[in-house]
Design goal:
Length: 243
């Protein structure tokens, strides 16, 4: 459990640092100082930028802005009653991530009691919601011919200069695949068809696939929902079309 906690903290911290540093470099370039100045890209400048961005993000109207973005997304991509699929996926993911990682990091014995019962119940909601979202949205995340060409080379392709839309498509399928692995390992660890040692291995896969899914979701949310700085320095939402 200690190893999982360490890997989780390092993994989440590393992804958050990478995503924020990319934005930091982009902001420095837009402000005209360029990437060549070491002081402009140094630790002090980065942490000053972080504090400035935190002041923009954590405001009294933050909850309202998040709800507005969420409602706009569901209105555009989920018609009528199909919004319940995305809502169920959101609620189940939030609870499963919060309960799973809290107990996985701070309790050596893992999850137990009522939180475990609700975690299992939300897993059922997650399975149904994920299936609905995949049926409704899979076509929108299929790569086009130009995007597919990046994977047609004999050697493993070097994924450079991929468009934001294509990265979002890749992340969608990564999240879906890890979600299916979550469902499979959860069911396998509960049914009396496997040995205790095999069930322990499934639980380990369940934990680490959950971590990988969390990291992919962080990047997906960052490049999809979090506003980008516009040319004039204001905040403008991501205008990429597809997802």
């Amino acid at each position: 459990m200690l190893l999982f906690a360490i890997i989780t903290v390092l993994g989440v911290g590393g992804v958050l640092f990478r995503q924020t540093y990319v934005r930091f470099r982009a902001d420095v370039s837009k402000e005209g100082r360029g990437p060549s100045g070491r002081s402009a890209l140094g630790p002090a400048a980065y942490w000053t930028w972080i504090l400035r961005r935190a002041g923009v993000v954590f405001r009294p109207d933050t909850a309202g802005r998040i709800w507005s973005v969420y409602r706009d997304w569901t209105d555009r991509h989920y018609a009528g009653w199909t919004k319940w699929f995305f809502g169920g996926l959101t609620v189940s993911l939030l609870y499963q991530a919060a309960s799973g990682f809290f107990f996985g990091i701070f309790f050596r014995r893992g999850m137990f009691g009522l939180p475990l019962l609700v975690h299992v119940m939300s897993g059922g909601l997650f399975a149904v919601s994920l299936a609905g979202v995949m049926l409704l949205r899979a076509r929108d995340y299929l790569p086009d011919r130009e995007e597919s060409a990046a994977f047609e080379a004999f050697a493993c392709p070097i994924l450079k200069n991929l468009s934001r839309v294509f990265v979002r498509k890749i992340l969608f399928w990564v999240i879906c695949g890890l979600g299916l692995l979550q469902i499979t390992t959860a069911l396998g660890s509960m049914v009396p068809l496997f040995t205790f040692r095999t069930q322990q291995v499934m639980i380990t896969f369940h934990r680490y696939s959950a971590l990988a899914m969390l990291l992919a979701a962080i990047v997906f949310i960052d490049i999809t929902f979090i506003a980008q700085r516009g040319p004039a320095g204001g905040q403008a939402p991501d205008g990429s079309a597809a997802a």
